[in-house]
């Protein structure tokens, strides 16, 4: 046996390589393009080839980051929903218990035509894809949770199930309003906005609720 020969190094288990800063930035750029395709061309036109062409890269380059269309959809969905949830959390946390700033901030988001069209496409995806639907349900569950905490802060004596019920009704009202205020289902009007704001504020604890 030749003791002078160095022994071969023991094989090390494979470890997933950490993304570099450049790789992370490239991934975000590709997701930016994907969002743009969803907004401008719709879900029906969303494919790996379309995104690669819009980004000016080879298909193989795109698949280095997102192997399938499903991977791409999940990634852009996670990013969009996380961003929106941060905005909801920031709005409710920074309002200092005041109702009007919360209502105004959430309604102001609906004036962003790009955001409304993006969520319209996400809702359409959720109607036909169970994994997307699960992500969307999780988003609205967390969204409602932030609003319920805000309602509880306004009225600590309100039972938890009523805080949740008011929060869910508020979210339904605000999200449904986007279809009308954005011009998708109708045209926005000052009178309707005034009624919407008053009802939304009442649900958050800014006024009396009428009815049984």
Automatic annotation (TrEMBL):
GO terms for molecular function: DNA-binding transcription factor activity; transcription cis-regulatory region binding. The keyword DNA-binding applies. Residues 24-84 form the HTH tetR-type domain. It comes from Planomonospora parontospora. This is HTH tetR-type domain-containing protein. It holds the Pfam family TetR_N. InterPro entries: Homeodomain-like_sf, HTH-type_TetR-like_transc_reg, HTH_TetR, Tet_transcr_reg_TetR-rel_C_sf. Residues 1-28 are annotated as: Disordered. The keyword DNA-binding applies. Keywords: DNA-binding.
């Amino acid at each position: 046996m030749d003791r002078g020969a160095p022994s071969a190094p023991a094989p090390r288990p494979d470890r997933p390589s950490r993304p570099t800063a450049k790789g992370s930035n490239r991934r975000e750029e590709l997701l930016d393009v994907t969002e743009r395709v969803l907004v401008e061309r719709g879900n029906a036109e969303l494919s790996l080839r379309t995104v690669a062409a819009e980004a000016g890269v080879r298909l193989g380059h795109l698949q280095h980051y997102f192997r399938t269309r499903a991977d791409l959809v999940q990634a852009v969905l996670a990013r969009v929903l996380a961003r929106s949830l941060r905005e909801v959390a920031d709005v409710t946390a920074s309002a200092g218990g005041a109702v009007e700033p919360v209502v105004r901030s959430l309604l102001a988001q609906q004036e962003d035509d790009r955001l409304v069209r993006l969520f319209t496409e996400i809702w359409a995806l959720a109607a036909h894809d169970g994994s997307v639907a699960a992500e969307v349900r999780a988003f609205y569950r967390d969204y409602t949770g932030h609003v319920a905490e805000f309602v509880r802060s306004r009225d600590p004596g309100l039972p938890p199930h009523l805080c949740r019920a008011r929060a869910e009704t508020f979210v339904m009202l605000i999200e449904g309003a986007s279809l009308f205020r954005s011009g998708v289902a109708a045209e926005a009007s000052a009178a309707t906005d005034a009624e919407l704001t008053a009802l939304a504020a009442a649900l958050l604890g800014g006024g009396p609720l009428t009815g049984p």
